[in-house]
Amino acid sequence: MTEKAVPDIVVGRLPVYLRILNYLIDEGRYITSSQELGDRLGISSAQIRKDLSHFGEFGKQGTGYDVMFLRDQLQKILHVDRRWSVVLVGAGDLGHALAHYRRFNDAGFDVVGVFDSDPQKIGQQFGKYMIQDVSTMGEVIQEHKVKMGIIAVPPAAATEVAKEMIKLGVVSILNYAPVTIMVPLGVRVQYIDPVVHLQHMAYYHNEEAL
Amino acid sequence: MTEKAVPDIVVGRLPVYLRILNYLIDEGRYITSSQELGDRLGISSAQIRKDLSHFGEFGKQGTGYDVMFLRDQLQKILHVDRRWSVVLVGAGDLGHALAHYRRFNDAGFDVVGVFDSDPQKIGQQFGKYMIQDVSTMGEVIQEHKVKMGIIAVPPAAATEVAKEMIKLGVVSILNYAPVTIMVPLGVRVQYIDPVVHLQHMAYYHNEEAL
Hints:
The structure is a homodimer. Chain A is 42% helix and 19% strand. Chain A has helices spanning 8-26, 34-41, 45-53, 67-77, 93-99, 102-106, 137-143, 155-167, 194-202; strands at 31-32, 59-60, 64-66, 84-89, 109-116, 125-126, 129-133, 148-151, 172-175, 188-191.
């Protein structure tokens, strides 16, 4: 096991493999193959075998993968065989959807606090959360040993929020604000921007056909 | 210009360049450099120059890029120098946030209809939209010449919705449902799954430090 050497792009596919394994378990399946996984994910079975080979031997030649075993192993590799506490900053529409996104909970991610800097929002009920003052985020982070944060604030505020999170010990940030955030070594940011995806696909539209 | 030959990963970075150029314009800037863009995006200036070189010559040696010119060119290249009509299927929490996401509008993407299959939801007001029966989606798609769709339904329904969209002429799908969708040649799907991002980052957490 040389986890350190695994390319990030391979790591990024593991959650997708984990997702399909969970569906197979829901379907009552016990055994699968790289062929079936590949077919259901639209990638080659060779790619899947190669990706998994970075982490060990999970299947026997000719008998395929034990679905639950592989699921459990991937959960361990990804460190998601445990629960993670997450703080969420930004109590807007998007923040509301994220705070109550059931799949976070199903996957072991618990939003332990929702924060905003708007005095009009602080103290308000927000679905099952109460919106807290972002300046008090440190207490919650400390109490729950939070290492992960989600940013759903307007672009102008995102860098400041990220800095504060990092100062308080957060090392993984999921950033919905449409800005690039510079972070120190050891801190990771992943970005979700639906506009980027739509524009990316627009490139391939044949203008003549429109 | 050999657009066909441009690697998809390069195309995927153009919207991010476009985003930063728009910020520079908002800041009142007229000239920028690959160095500045790189610094603000956390990538190398060489990468930016190489990416842009696929599409032509946008800057002069030593004088940098004209911000507005480069912005306009990127918009043309991405086919986002026009407005796009988009249908949205799935009138849940996430669908609500997406239907009212201001940046879609700012970027030229107009959600022209919100659809669901739940009889309890159909006909209900949904912010500024009225939820329509997904079985009537064809009329809206035809009327607005819709080529893009957003899926925000539960995983079990996503494949069916995608099939229907594609049958009706949609060729670009932004899929928020946590399932992989198989599509015919000529149709593109991009995925947004925040759980995948959190799990991806969890991999890098040092367990000893927890």
